[in-house]
Write a structure and sequence with these properties.
The chain has seven helices and nine strands. The protein is α/β, with parallel strands linked by helices. The protein is globular.
């Protein structure tokens, strides 16, 4: 009988071809990436552990599997990219800095990798994606890796996910020109939103904390993300 989950078929094919046999996707390879992240200044052990546990090669196209544990962004189709592991680690650590949020909303599911990292660290993850094909393949991968605490839907992230608001944390993995008002409204008091903001080469990673009286912003430095686009595809 055929296995119902095609991504696992892919894994089996890869081992037949010898990819896992020569260690390109092995735990040792994953550990090397974690060591590289440590060397690059990531010190949150829970984040490092989560990333060490996740088979990132399942989130990229098979042809790129051998590069899945390099600390680089990789194409995932539709002109989109899976973020660089260092960026994923930095944003995740920043989001968890003042304690573990109960529920996190991610905008821009893409490959599903960032959502899966979050799913290992927080009780409930919500994620939205505007591109049908990316949404479908991420949903398949969530099933394949057994990430049961992720709810995903196809929708325009500019709207957030009002039915499930407020969120204690919101993470954008595509860059809007400014922080969308609707998302700030869906943040709980004391909650944090982290987002690349700006256009092209001029983006800043911004962390916003909602207080009783308003919003406080910190600038975490320059980044480059794909743009956050309006509407569905
Ligand atoms: N978090 C992803 C990164 C993907 S790149 C990962 O771990 O792989 C950013 C993603 O944001 C792309 O898939 C893109 O289609 C999506 N995106 C861009 N604008 C969006 C919007 N308005 N709503 C939802 N998703 C959006």
């Amino acid at each position: 009988m055929r296995h119902p989950i095609s991504i696992l078929d892919g894994v089996e094919r890869m081992s037949v071809a010898g990819l896992s046999g020569i260690g390109m996707t092995s735990q040792r390879t994953r550990n090397r990436l974690i060591q590289r992240l440590r060397d690059a200044g990531i010190s949150n052990e829970a984040v490092l552990q989560a990333m060490g546990d996740i088979p990132r090669h399942l989130f990229v196209q098979e042809a790129l599997s051998s590069r899945a544990y390099e600390d680089t962004a990789l194409p995932i189709g539709h002109g989109q990219t899976i973020s660089q592991p260092w960026v994923v680690a930095t944003m995740t650590a920043a989001l968890l800095e003042h304690g573990v949020p109960d529920r996190v909303l991610e905008i821009g599911t893409g490959s599903g990798y960032q959502a899966t990292v979050l799913s290992k660290l927080v009780p409930q993850v919500y994620t939205v994606e505007r591109v049908e094909e990316l949404f479908r393949s991420a949903r398949r991968v969530f099933r394949a890796v057994g990430a049961r605490n992720i709810r995903c839907k196809k929708s325009d992230g500019y709207l957030g996910w009002p039915e499930n608001a407020p969120f204690e944390a919101i993470m954008l993995t595509a860059a809007p020109p400014g922080i969308p008002e609707a998302l700030l409204k869906q943040l709980s008091i004391g909650g944090r939103l982290i987002a690349p903001v700006g256009q092209g080469q001029h983006q800043r990673l911004i962390c916003v904390t909602r207080t009783e009286s308003g919003f406080e912003e910190t600038d975490l430095g320059g980044v480059i993300f794909v743009p956050m686009l309006q509407g569905l595809e």
